[in-house]
Amino acid sequence: MTVTPAQLLRGLAVVAFLVAWALLAHVGSAGEGSADLSVLLGVTPIMAAVGLLLWRSRYPLLAGGGNLAMLGAIVWLWPTLRQNVALLFFVQHLGTNLALGTLFGRSLLGGGEALITQLARAVHQGALSERKRRHTRQATLAWTLFFLGNALVSVILWLFAPPSVWSIYANLLSMPLLAAMFAAEHIWRLIVLPPEERPSLAQVARAYRLHGKQTPPANPS
């Protein structure tokens, strides 16, 4: 796959943004820097996730009212949040990993297809070998354990380690750990699947976009 200069620049910009976000979150969790900026960094992903869930509901009034109520609650709680920045980032990190672990894990229950199997079926237009189905189900389980393991380690460090140690793990190591997991899955895919059953990065990205638009149920039964 050929990468254009524009795509390369966009990728570098995303990486720079994520690095800056992680550094600012670490500084905020340590009680340094601007408390208002730290709170803004902490609540933005939470508000975005809740807002997206509300807007995807079938009840516009509920969605609009819920978003307004959330904004009002953030404004009302802002002074309290400024005094509990580290706790805010802990809730953000824990909630993100639990949500992703649940998203992957619930697709393994019942008679439905695993989440990565659904994505692979979108890439291959519905045709999957038994080997591919087995691999994608195992990969879904691996991602489930990865996110739930992240959540567990985060809780243990929050309870028993100094805040700086928890912040290093949650804020500074999250992206490297995620990248390492992607790399490990890619190497595993190269080992167990033949070339014709390995999707390109562009195909994977397109499958994620299609899945996000269609949101098929994890367990159709």
TrEMBL record:
Keywords: Membrane, Transmembrane, Transmembrane helix. The keyword Electron transport does not apply. The chain crosses the membrane at residues 12-31, 37-54, 61-79, 85-105, 141-160, 166-184. The keyword Membrane applies. This is Transmembrane protein. It comes from Dechloromonas agitata.
